Amino acid sequence: MQFDVCVIGGCGHVGLPLALCFANEGRRVAGFDVNSDAVAAVAGGQMPFQEEGGEESLSAALASGNLRICDDPEVISSARDIILTIGTPVDRHLNPSFAAIQAAVEDYLPYFRNGQLLVLRSTVYPGTSERVYNVIRSEGPQMFVAFCPERIAQGQAIRETYQMPQIVSAFSDEGMARARELFEVFGGGIIELAPLEAELCKLFTNSYRYIKFAVANQFYAIANDHGVDYYRLREAITKDYPRASDLPSAGFAAGPCLFKDTMQLGSFYNNSFFLGHAAMLINEGLPGYIVGCLRRSLPLREMTVGILGMAFKADSDDARDSLAYKLRKILELECKEVVTTDPYVSDERLLPLEEVVERSDLLIVGAPHSVYREVDLQDQEVVDIWNCFGRGGLICP
Ligand SMILES: NC(=O)c1ccc[n+]([C@@H]2O[C@H](COP(=O)([O-])OP(=O)(O)OC[C@H]3O[C@@H](n4cnc5c(N)ncnc54)[C@H](O)[C@@H]3O)[C@@H](O)[C@H]2O)c1
pTM for the complete prediction? Predict the structure, then answer.
């Protein structure tokens, strides 16, 4: 075998850091991706997105000769282990779609070989691993199928890959042993589960986080509606009180994972995952809640409103499913003008920070990037639901 590992989706937010970690542990890695632009960038030594330690890790992996990035599926055949990391979005009815994984497995079936291990690393609708296993068993070669969910926080994948235990699951003892052997290299420990258990673990993890953010956002709205600053309460609740120390700050809970994975779990539980759906209403409703508060106390139609930060979370360049865009859309219906800025996101509508600050009658933080803490706002009115400026989180106090 020419490669130890082939990562399918090898230029993605999950696939690339994982490929880099394996390559820098001395594994011979093929990163295969259908996005030719990303392949050209990564092969040329350029990270296609922000990742802590990413540039150094990519340089080291390329210099070692252990990493080959390409858009040729032939590399799949020459790897001992294959890891599938492609996106698994929900459809427009918020139901999971098996189509992407199914299409990838069917497309690459001709490249699979006897004795290979196929690891599903994407977050999947429960039962997907078994469906893939059945497809391989009936139409593919004699290979092993495993489901080993990715649990990193986007942007910190390289560091976290070494810090967290890896959950592994498979359909046979030999498949489990292969999956264990593959991931043991990172040294964070291994947790063995059955495939359905591992699938549910991953969805429970993301839904739990999403619900925690919704709790904070609901508390924020209750306090704000009564003229109380949530951050004074949060400080009081969490100070030297370990049982509540994980109460999050308020803020937009968005991005490509938490929302869609909560919806996947809702769909799996026959749309009776009431907590998950309630969390969705609270989190997705937050931009509308902010605008509703502003509408009651300010002449929005005469105002230029600026949004600071369009990424889905702090210090990230990823605007996928960002609620700052939902906020912009709602404001555009209500205000004279909306101007937006972000130091990391690529979007031709964005303006320099200074221009947005200068032109805006009111600023709203859309993503609490650390650089904003340095901005001199003087007396400018700011809606800051994260309290990133440390002035509290009240809307129109
Ligand atoms: N982003 C995260 O922080 C994160 C964390 C944990 C789990 N996940 C899960 O991991 C999966 C991937 O998420 P992501 O954020 O890395 O997505 P992504 O869009 O950043 O990466 C997916 C990559 O796969 C490539 N791709 C798509 N179809 C392909 C195909 N048929 N063959 C080869 N390459 C293909 C794309 O070009 C892209 O580079 C999702 O299931 C997601 O829920 C993501």
Answer: 0.96
